[in-house]
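Appendix B.2, paired examples.
Example (i):
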Amino acid sequence: MKRKYCCKLVILVILLLDIFYVHAQFNGITDSLFLKFRNCNNDSVKVLCLNELSWQYRINLPDSALVYANKAKLISEKNGFKAGIATSLNRIGEIERIQGNYSQAIETFTKALQIEKEINNTYGIARANGQLTLLFESTGQIDKAINAAQICIKLYKEINNFSALANSYDRYARLYEHQGKIDSALNLIYSELEIQEQLKDSTNIVYSYISLANLYLKLKKYSKALEYNNRAINVAVKFDDQFNLSKIYINISIVYYNLNQFYTSIEFNLKSIEIKNKLKQGKTLDANYDNLGNCYYSLGEYDKAIQFYNKSIALKEENEKKEGLGIAYTNLGNLFFTKKQYKTALFYYQKGLINAKIMNDKLIILELYQNIYKSYSITGQLENAVAFNDKYISLRDSIDATYRNTINLKERYQDEQRKNQLLEKDNLINEIKLKRKNIMIISLVGGILLLTLLFFTISRSSRLKQRTLLAEKNSEIKEQKITELIKDQELKSMSAMMEGQEGERKRIAQDLHDRLGSMLSMVKLHFKSVEENIQTLRENNILMYSKANNLLDEACDEVRKIANDLTSGILNKFGLIPALNNLKESIEATGQLKIEVLNFGFDESRLDYNIEINLYRIIQELISNILKHSKASEVSIQLLKKEKQLNIVVEDNGLGFDINQAKNRKGMGLKNIESRVNSLNGEFNIDSGKGAGTTITIDIPLKSIK
């Protein structure tokens, strides 16, 4: 009796201590739950409060969450409250899953499922199956995972629980991903995202973004993977979702690993590990160890790589986590293959193949078939080599069609959207043309009547009016030329004052090409868009347009002679990123080019203005070159600000060019860009080829940014 009383007293003390802590640290939701628990005499309501508190604490304070869930279970068992017992078991199982205790979690959720079936709770049955889907997947029981996922989706549809249905789509998509059915996985994730957007569920949208980022990573579409990871970061930071933030950082580290930016990859990986350690999620560090091993392997630090690979394998085996074990063995095998230790490599490849077949992970199986074939070939075991080569070819052909359809899945979706937008635009244009046509008909009828009555008078008046307008126009043109000559003379005088300053002449030459030339090119683009519809105007206006066009060309020639040290208004007031977005909107308005601007690490602080103006002019010149030469339809601008470096990537889908020829005959554009980059102590690299688009990479050390 005393022992029972002591246990109750301990639990009560823990609750009282946590109540004090929560009132001091946490938001109004937990405060309200504690207040309701303390003031309520109804055991059923107390159970609900304790279970909800357990859910709130499951990530940041898992030990406290277990105390609340077990207390709720104890009260429920005492009162025969089966629904309370089932929910408590769900909370306990979720904490066990997060901490990596998969076998214990499966046992807990199975008990919860049995109780939910006894009380015929459709939602509870679906909920337990959803959690079991994740656990069966993690332990390599794919058939069981698929069965649980199908039951879960069917039941959530029956009760119209769309929020839970969206999460079920995400789990099922992961199973498709294991089977190499990336197109099916993408379809499910986009369906999930559509539901979340309709529900305006910003918190859960982050899961959809993470899933899309991972799928595009598998498709080697790294800019898309970074885009969706950055979207996920914005949502996770907004809601202080540290649990998902740790996932996003490891995903970004994998993207940068695939981009061969290994130190950046390690940096994001360490951020993920730091968060996981704070959240007491040490059992989930196997993915981090895998990626760190890959980075050090690529950097040639084999001992460190082996150390992290072995850590990953040990952690996976310790927690019976079969997910990813095949990849870990494959990585270790590849390392020993590189070291020409082919027997050791074969040993790890065979272990990886056993696991990959259990998980039915066709992509890993495909890679292992090829690796084993190469190992047998080098060691002279030709019969085995031929057998595995045949297996590789057979499996590759079976999944090749799926990948071909998947690669353009999102692009087809966007094409349909663009077609619909163009159709709406065409309808609007036709409507405007119809109104104009009606106005013209009415005007013509009235004109004919007036011409019939006053032909000679109107003709004479019209000629006089045209002469007057022409005289006024000539006068305006003369005034403009006088003004331009005055300005030109002023600038020539200024240039004469600075004749001996070689550095200043070089700056003016750069600014003339980069700034005024680019801006006049955009004006010309807008003018061309007007030119396409000029045929609908009257003949006399066509002549006026031609003159105006010639005047614009003459003005362009005149303006190129003028060197003004002007600065960008938006850049001066708001900074580099808003200025680039403004440039993007200006160019996209012409309909000539689609531009994507991605940035990471730019907080409210500004860079030095001279640095910002140089970076802006560099990107402006790159866009100008793309418009002039590449015939591209899309451009991606990516900016990453890190602690010791600023990285800029400008990528287009244009015709590309021969880099060696370009180096031999660099135009002023590339010379100006190189000159600006050199002034910042940076590095400037071009990756291009005919028909393959162009990627410009610029790295600026932070020590030059003051």
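Example (ii):
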Amino acid sequence: MHKYMILFIVLSITFYILYIQMKGQSIKKEKEQFQPLSYELADTKADSVLALMTQVEKVAIVEGDRSFFIRPIPRLNLPEVYMTDATQGVHIREKFKDLDLAMYQLEKSTAFPCPILLAATWNSELSYKYAEAVGEECRAGGIGILLGPGVNSYRISQCGRNFEYFGEDPFLRARMVGEYVKGVQSTGTIATLKHFVANNTDYYRRKSNSIIDERTLHEIYLPPFKAGIDAGAQAVMTSYNLLNGEWCGQSEYVINGILKTQLGFRGLVMTDWWSVYDGEKLAKSGQDLEMPYAVALKDVHQLLDEGKIKIEDINRMAKSILRTCFIMKLEDRKKYPSDNILYENHESVALQAAREGIVLLKNEKNILPLQEDKKKILVTGDYVEKIAMGRGSAEVKGYNNRLMLDELKKEFGSRITYVKDPNFDQIKAADVVLCNIGTEDSEGWDRSFALPEDQEKKVGDCVNNNPNTVVIVTSGSGIRMTDWNNKARAILYAWYGGQIGNKALVEIIAGKTNPSGKLPMTIEKEFKDSPGYGYIPEGETLYQGWNGKEEKAHPVYDVRYSEGIFVGYRWYEKKNIEPLYPFGFGLSYTSFEYSDLTIGTNMFQEQGIVKVSFAVKNVGNRRGLETVQLYVQDVESAVPRPLKELKGFTKVDLEPGQSKNVAIELTTKDFSFWDPETKDWFFEKGAFIIQVGSSSKEIKVQKQIEL
């Protein structure tokens, strides 16, 4: 009987594997066969269709429909195009269940870890896989346009949408975004770069006027947009804010000047929802599509009759929409059958992202991973029995949510005791305390850098009554940890891990996974240390909730980017301000050594290439992943420059005692700065220092070169 049972199990596993393989074959075949139409052919096709359209049809297609659609033109066999949020998975709109829109209603979608966690992996290949999985679920939902990735910069820790973005550094964001775009669009789904541009606060976001100089725009805020464009992104969404006095969605300088002329974008430009006010400006700005429906363009026929705009303006807008849809072949695009979607694979990608993106910030006396002598493990915190997530359009609820408490019990069994609000005696009696605290961030408002009072009290009670407290931070950006950082035995930054992030978290706590995440932003000691401190108008305070009426009544206010290019770690180093945790920082359960830095400059004069190589060795006793980071310092420059700028990184997988050689190529642009006079990158010859290390603060090897 025993051998037949074994045979049954083997056959079951075999058939399951074959079933999974067969499920994915149709999607794989479709993806292999998909090739975007060339710009030239799509442009010609758009011209021919545009010539058949009436004025009414042209106007109809440049005005959004039913909140999330590009209108169909049935007479010309042009289908409606559905778009949905967001970067971290497919946001399922519950209201569609009650409407005749069942074909766009996925039964489930994977809740991936938030993008700032993805950035903390420093793994651009994983960014591709993550986005590819999101794109496959878009295809299953009949979604033509994904309203992501969000690529704005982490300028201030209080921004409510930091969890949707990829951190503070332009180079890191650019690398992650470029691969994300490729991953989404490999499925035939349009990726939308948002929000263009300089939308770095959600405090009355429609009334914030970002005042930024041109050099700062190009060096800090535009690189991820440029990377996405170069990767083939077919759509860009303009932002809510004003830039230097004009709303971005109707600014000719922003759209025609920067986006199309300077960055070379040739795809579809759409507004953010309810973000434009002047139809005449909109039509002349380079904008193509007003979402969610006509507000600024509500009187477009009158504007045409009065000659304030021309039919050529509408033709341009309509043609851009048609051309973009034709490039991605949306007019004859087929849905992926829902039962062919490999949700198992998608969840595996989500799990790997969480494994690589959780950051170990502190680990005194190597309390982690927890050893067998820790018999009494007290667990407390608001996110032990519920999944924390970022709110707003980016929210994805998931379908197989793993609670932290359940995962801990699976791993540690009866050693776990959960008390929501433990008293001092219970805290003191534990061998170790796992205290989970954090924030639930959202678009629409900013939140305080300081924790809510109840969260601050809980972590204070734990660290003050038990020296073996491990603090687990669940948040979408940096929080104030200054009062208890030194008292905590260990700190894990878990971000928003999506539906399966808690499995990765417990693997790290137990030592089954070695943490390898690195901070994609700086965590300051106090918010007043931040370059963006003081952005809220004098006399005003932060709010929570969707304050539509208050926002409408609020006057436009200036957000002055007076720090210029000195944002993030650049700022803290320039001002000699010690952060709590530096950009790029993250601990491991093993240790790494760097050596043998060599720099080849012989190809620079002819090809503009500098070859940097060095060795990394795992000198600990367990396998680990190390993200090596390369920074460039300009020794003497005609313009102010940071003490260092990230210009290369890679993730190295090493067994104990193993050493690997790492090679990174730098180009002329990596040594250049933006020159507003020539509207181009400028290389200034001279001395540069190549710095390689494990964070922006921990430089292990460096060498000066002359170029």
